[in-house]
Design brief:
Largest sheet: none
Structural class: mainly alpha
Mean pLDDT: 79
Number of strands: 0
Low-confidence stretches: none
Distance between the termini: 24 Å
Shape: globular
Strand content: under 5%
Length: 184
């Protein structure tokens, strides 16, 4: 199984097979993020299509020195979702979770296992943050609120909100980039 770096090099060379593998590896996760933020399966499907179309057509702006490809891809997805919410000028509707179970197929058990494991890692790292950092990150990334909206919701100064998010994300990144201990 090819790594993300190899797949991205092949994608830049416009190899359709590379896009197919990346889509197979990440589409369910991109769909899950989109569905959670948008609350509409139709809109979430459009975001998935937009994200992977962008990967195929545009020059990639992904920088491996700044983090993992998956993190970058999920950030692109989140930004697309927020753009849609702002364009339609409505508050994010939360998905009830019933459609989230329909995302995985029998073919992608390996991908699903990786995603479940990664979600556990992220949740564990989130728990290590201060309550204020965790709340700010959850409002920004899971509810799709802007920094200004978070400041208004929490009653905190805008600079405080930005600092909490930045520090929290740095701590998350450090925790997620540490090599995992393998137990026999």
């Amino acid at each position: 199984m090819a790594g993300d770096g190899d797949l991205l090099r092949r994608l830049e060379a416009r190899e359709p097979a590379a896009l197919e593998v990346i889509y197979g590896r990440y589409s369910a996760y991109v769909m899950g993020i989109s569905l959670r933020i948008l609350g509409s399966r139709e809109e979430a499907e459009e975001v998935v299509q937009d994200v992977f179309w962008q990967l195929w057509k545009a020059t990639l702006r992904y920088d491996p020195a700044r983090g993992r490809f998956s993190t970058w891809l999920f950030s692109v997805t989140r930004n697309r979702c927020i753009d849609r919410l702002r364009a339609s000028a409505r508050a994010p509707a939360r998905a009830d979770g019933s459609e989230l179970g329909l995302l995985a197929t029998d073919d992608d058990q390996e991908v699903e296992a990786y995603q479940v494991e990664r979600q556990k890692e992220v949740r564990a790292q989130l728990e290590l943050l201060s309550d204020e950092q965790r709340q700010a990150i959850e409002l920004a990334f899971f509810r799709g609120l802007s920094h200004v909206e978070i400041a208004s919701t929490t009653g905190e100064a805008l600079g405080t909100v930005k600092s909490r998010i930045r520090r929290g994300l740095l701590r998350l990144r450090e925790g997620l980039e540490r090599p995992r201990e393998v137990t026999p």
